Amino acid sequence: MTTEVGRDVIPFRQAVRAWFLISLQTFGGPAGQIAVMQRTLVEEKRWIGQQRFNHALNYCMLLPGPEAQQLAIYVGWLLNGTRGGLVAGTLFVLPGMLALLALSAVYVLWQDTGVVTALFAGIAPAVLAIVAQAVIRVATRSLTHPLFVAVAVAAFGALALFGVPFPIVIAAAALLGWGVHKLAPQVLTKGNGHGGDGGPAPLIPDEALHHAQPSWRSASKILAIGLVAWWLPVAAVALFLGTDSVFTTQGLFFSGAALVTFGGAYAVLAFVAQRAVEVYAWLTPGEMVRGLALAETTPGPLIMVVQFVAFLGAYRDPGGLDPWAAALLGSVLTVWVTFVPCFLFIFIGAPYVERLRHNTAISAALTGITAAVVGVIANLALYFAEHTLFTTTSPWNWGPFTMHVPDPASLSPVALAITVAALLMTFVLKWPMLRILGICAVLGLSTALLHL
Question: Transmembrane ranges (predicted)?
């Protein structure tokens, strides 16, 4: 019998504590962040079933913006309604925002983040081990038919070897899933298990209905409130500080950037870097690279690098304000306009997506996306591994295609050693994630202090 999910699946305070702990572990870009939620919510706490988790992730992959944060909002909404989504999405970005705000100030003061970089250099190998574990587990539970394995491999190859744009990969996977539903529906029946591991049933089963009823009235209300919340700060700085101020420019620019980040942050960072460096002159090309490095080694979505960009731009063009006050204002405003749309997309779309889970044609398309997402996460994991273990990459031409491969001579022995230790702690000793992160952070800091 199909059950219905209520408003509070778990006590709200318990959910807040869980999301806070998750927020402290969101290193490693979307691959690492999805890995943390997979391990915590699906495997350890068993709050949500694997197929339900995949369904939410598929929807978030179709949206502009950081898919991991949107996934947190979606699952938080499933567990505790609107307030659950607000808390999950806010906590997901808050530690990274505060960390990058502090590092931006450190950069302005001393132009040196060597100790901090060394600390996070130890965390990166730990995240690499966690991501590897997540790829294996998600693949084991999601790729339940040889066809799905082929789709995952094809998605990985298309992204890693041929540089096919992310939206094309996802669209092709959805079309394939729909085609299989029409031509060979028995494949989907065989591959549509719950991926159970013999443990207790999750609090939100894969087949349960959500209580929220989609309606145009509710969607219109959420849209109106969301648009006001999104644009009111931008209108305020335009009114009080001028339409030609750096704050208004940043508010408008990053609001637009938030709507075109399909395929994750990497898809839009080139555009942001070009405009921020060449058009607005908020920072130099070298500073953009350093800001990206800081964003990659702090918790939260990689798109948080826009906060560093806004901080430097406002500090150098305060428009009559104290430079530090201007930097803080520009930074907070940019984070606001970047992430508020994410809440809108989920709160408006999630009730409809929940009801569409039982539409066989759409579910088939999303099943194809599920398989492709495994390849996407594997590609992100490969990218993260290359930049964790090697310091430089070189272009390699393969016919009309060009890809960057790591330079073997640039392999970091320290990063390799910490990665091996992290893999042993993860797969052999099976230690808790926070303990692994803490030990690896200490190892990274120690090797830097010893000048190894």
Answer: 86-109, 116-136, 148-176, 222-241, 253-272, 292-312, 324-348, 360-385, 410-429
Contact 264, 278 (CB under 8 A): no
Is there a single domain that holds both residue 249 and residue 376?
A: no
Tens-place pLDDT, residues 435-452:
888 898 889 888 877 765
DSSP states along 32-57: HHHHHHIIIIIIIS--B-HHHHHHHH
pLDDT of residue 270: 62
d(CA 387, CA 396): 16
Residue from 307, 345, 350 nearest 230 by CA? 345
DSSP string, 256-312: HHHTS-TTSTHHHHHHHHHIIIIIS-SS-HHHHHHHHHHHHTSSS-GGGHHHHHHHH
C-alpha–C-alpha distance, residues 31 and 306, integer Å: 20
Say whether both 268 and 370 belong to one domain. no
Which of 310, 344, 378 marks a domain boundary?
344
- Does 337 share its domain with 438? no
Give the tens place of pLDDT for each residue, 385-420.
887 888 887 777 766 666 668 888 889 898 899 999
Q: What is the pLDDT of residues 72-87, one digit of tens each?
A: 999 999 999 999 999 9
Coil, strand, or helix at residue 199? Answer: coil
CB neighbour list of residue 376: distance below 8 Å, 6 or more residues apart: 61, 155, 156, 159, 166, 169, 170
Residue 356 lies in domain: 4-194+345-449
The sign one gets for the Cα dihedral 47, 52, 57, 62 is: negative
Is the distance from CB of 392 to CB of 410 less than 8 angstroms?
A: yes
The per-residue pLDDT for range 373-385, each reduced to its tens digit, is 788 778 877 877 8
Question: In which residue are the tokens 């085609």 written?
Answer: 179
Indicate if 17 and 38 belong to the same structural domain.
yes
Same domain, 51 and 153: yes
pLDDT at 125: 83
Are 130 and 188 found together in one domain? yes
Residues 331 and 362 in one domain: no
